């Protein structure tokens, strides 16, 4: 199935974001999944202040990842992100119903922002 993962990492260090994305990507590949695209959206203000892991956050570094994988791989990625103290929030959405004609209508991922 095709999934899109949107994550918010505590701001400050781009290396932390890269480590988290690399870890999630390796987990997907270990479960024989395919990564379709990764997008760095940059640092934005959160809609409202959020308390996670005993810290209060007002800003976050957003990223998006599109990937094909099994349900077990998707759940493993979500569990890994939930345990990471650098993550503020994450959400994954299933895109389409797994058929090629439906997936082809789903637009390309968001471009990297420099």
UniProtKB/TrEMBL annotation:
An MF annotation (GO) of this entry: structural constituent of ribosome
Domain of life of the source: Eukaryota
A GO CC annotation given for this chain: mitochondrial small ribosomal subunit
Main location per the UniProt record: mitochondrion
UniProt KW keywords: Mitochondrion, Ribonucleoprotein, Ribosomal protein
Record family assignment: Belongs to the bacterial ribosomal protein bS6 family.
Protein function: Component of the mitochondrial ribosome (mitoribosome), a dedicated translation machinery responsible for the synthesis of mitochondrial genome-encoded proteins, including at least some of the essential transmembrane subunits of the mitochondrial respiratory chain. The mitoribosomes are attached to the mitochondrial inner membrane and translation products are cotranslationally integrated into the membrane.
Protein name in UniProt: Small ribosomal subunit protein bS6m
Organism: Monosporascus ibericus
Lineage, highest ranks first: Eukaryota, Fungi, Dikarya, Ascomycota, Pezizomycotina
